[in-house]
Amino acid sequence: MNSSTRWLSISGRFLVVLALQILVMDRILLFGFANPLVYCYFILLYPLSGNRVWLIVSSFILGLSVDMFNDTGGAHAAASVFLGWIRPTLLNFSFGVSYQYNTVKIANAPIGQQIIFVLSAVILHHLVLFSLEAGSWTYWLLVLKSTLITSLLSTVLILTAFQFFNRKNT
Amino acid sequence: MQQIIEFFIRNKNFLLFLALFSLGYSLTQKAHSGLYTRNIASTNKITGSVFSWLTDKRSYFALREQNEELSAANTQLLLQYYQSKQEHPDRSHGLNAELLSNGAALDSLEGRALNIIQAHVINNTYHRRKNTLTIDKGSKDGVVPDMGVSSPVGIVGIITHVSEHFSVAQSILNTNSRVVVKSKNSDHFGTLIWDGQRIDNLLLTEIPKIAPLSIGDSLVTDGKSTIFPRGWPVGTVTDIKPAKAQDYLEVSVRPYTDMSSLYHIYLIQRPEAQEIRELEILSQNEF
Fold first, then answer.
1. B31 to chain A, closest Cα gap in Å
2. Is residue A81 within 8 Å of residue A56, measured between CB atoms?
3. What's the pLDDT tens digit per position in B119-167?
4. Would you call B21 an interface residue with chain A, using a CB distance cutoff of 8 Å?
5. pLDDT at residue B59 tops 70
6. Which of A49, A65, B69, B232 is the 20 to 30 A CA-CA neighbour of A78?
7. Is residue B12 part of a domain?
C-alpha cells in the first residue's frame, strides 16, 4: 500500500468509527448505565508501523470530537490520548516483542492474545474516562462498576469488528 | 543545550502525551465547573446541525409515543382550565383565555403571565453523573440562561448556556442540580438533588421531619428559586427514610417525566425573576 492510500484508509476509518460512536452507540444504554464505546477500535488498529506522534495526535482529535457531541469537556480526549500513548506497552505485553518486526497482524493473532490486548486497553481507557467524568472520589464504586461492565461490552464489540473487517489487511 | 534538545527529542512522545492529556483534563475540569467554552459544548454549529438532522430522522419513529404524551398533557390542561373556571368564574373568561391563546399561560397562584417558549430536545444524555440537554432554540428565539425547562408532565432542568440558535440545559439528572420543591399539600420545602445512580430516582433532602409527607404524595416546585413558578409538577414520593442529620427526612422521588424519552419541551420564565434577583442581591449587600 503506498502512503497516500494508507493515509486515506486511516482517515476513512477515523470518520466511520466516529460516526458509528455518535450516531449509533451513544443512543444505546444497556442495564441503565452501560454505553458501549467502540471508537477505541481506531486507536487499537492504527497501523503498527505508523508514526507514534500521529497516533497520539489523532487519538486526541478523535476523543475531542466525541467530547463535543457529548458535552463531556475533554474526558474522552484525555482517555484516548492516554490509550494512544500506552499502546506500544500493551502490544509488547500481549504479543511479545515480535510485533516490532512487523511479523504480527493483530486480527490474525491467536484469539487469547487478542482478548488480552483489547480487554487491557479498553479497561485502562474506560477507567481514565469514567474517573475524569465523575470528577470526584465520591463516585469511585460507580466508576468501577461502569468501567467493568462497559469494558466487557466494548471489548466484545471491538473483537467482533476485528473478525469481520480485518482478516486480510491491517 | 544540546542535551536539552536531545532530551526533548528522545521523550517527544511522552511530552506530547503529557501536554494533550493535561489539555483534556483541564477541559474536563472546566466542564465540571460549568464554565466550558462554546466550542466544546454541543451548542456549536457542527454538532448542533448534526443533532438537528438526527432528531428530524428519529422524531418520525417516536410520533405515536409523543402524541400520546401531548394528548395526556392537553387533557390535564383542559381539566385545570375548567376547574379554575369553576373557582373564579369571572376571571377565567376574558383575560385568562386570551393569554392562553396567545401562547402565554397564567402563573397558577399569583395570576401573572409566564413567558413560555415551545422547543424540542435535540440531544439528551442520562447515563452520566452530570447530564445535559441540548435544545433547538437559542437567544434568537428569546432563550436566556436560568429559564426553567419542563416536559408536558413535569420539570426537566434549567437552561445554563445559550448560543444564537441552540441552548444547553442542566438536567435534573445532574449531581450539580438543586431545585427547591414542596409537597402539594403543605408548605414544607426541601432541596431536590440527584445522587448519580438511577435515572428514575431523585432525592429530596433538607426537608424537616415534621412535614406531613406520605408515599404517593405529589411534589411541586416551591417558587422560591425564581426559576420555576410555584406549583409546577415535579414527581411523586416513592420512599421516606430518616436522614443522617437529625430532624430531617430523606425522601426518594420518581420524576413525572421519563428522562430517557424527551422531545417536546417548554422553556418557562417568570417575568418577575429578574426583579426578585436584583432585590435579593441588594439586600445581601446591605447586611
1. 5
2. yes
3. 889 888 888 888 899 998 888 888 888 889 988 888 999 999 899 889 9
4. yes
5. no
6. A49
7. no
The DSSP symbol for B139 reads G
Is A34 a member of any domain? yes
Identify from B10, B14, B40, B263 which residue to disrupt to test chain A contact, counting A C-beta atoms within 10 A and taking the largest count: B40
ipTM over 0.90: no
The DSSP string of A103-163 is ---GGGS-HHHHHHHHHHHHHHHHHHHHHHHH-SGGGHHHHHHHHHHHHHHHHHHHHHHHH
Under the banding of pLDDT at 50, 70 and 90, the label for residue B236 is very high
Residues of A in contact with B31 (CB under 8 A): 71-75
Q: Report if residue A170 sits inside a domain.
A: no
> Which residues numbered 159-218 in B keep a CB inside 8 Å of some CB on A?
168, 196-199
Inside any domain, residue B188: yes
CATH of the domain at B108: 2.40.10.350
Hey, which residues does B233 pair with through a beta bridge?
B220
| Contact between A60 and A43 (Cβ < 8 Å) | no
Split into its structural domains, chain B has a count of 1
B260 touches chain A (CB under 8 A): yes
Looking up cell 462497559 gives A150
Position A32 pLDDT exceeds 50:
yes
For residues B126 and B137, give the distance between their C-alpha atoms in angstroms, rounded to a whole number. 21
The answer to whether A81 contacts B20, with C-beta atoms less than 8 Å apart, is yes
Closest CA to B200 of B133, B154, B147: B154
Number of domains in chain A: 1
Tell me, yes or no, if A147 comes closer than 8 A to chain B by beta carbon. Answer: no
DSSP string computed for B97-111: HHHHHTT-EE-TTT-
Q: Compare CB distances from A133 to B12, B36, B129 and report the shortest one's residue.
A: B129
Contact B178, B191 (CB under 8 A): yes
Residue B12's pLDDT is 83
Higher-scoring residue by pLDDT: A135, B37: A135
- pLDDT score of A167: 56
- pLDDT for residue B111 is more than 60: no
Query: Would you state the cell numbers that stand for residue A75, as one nine-digit string?
Result: 474526558
Q: What share of chain A is helix, strand, coil (3-state, %, to 5)?
A: 75, 0, 20
pLDDT tens-digit series, residues A40-88: 888 988 888 778 888 899 999 999 988 888 777 888 999 999 999 998 8
Residue B264's DSSP bridge partners are B120
Query: Cell 450516531 belongs to which residue?
Result: A23
The boundaries of the domain holding residue B69 are: 37-270
Start-to-end C-alpha separation, chain A: 11
Taking CB atoms and an 8 Å limit, are A69 and B47 in contact across chains?
yes
> Mapping DSSP to helix (H, G, I), strand (E, B) and coil, where does residue B156 land?
strand
Over range B201-219, report the average pLDDT: 89
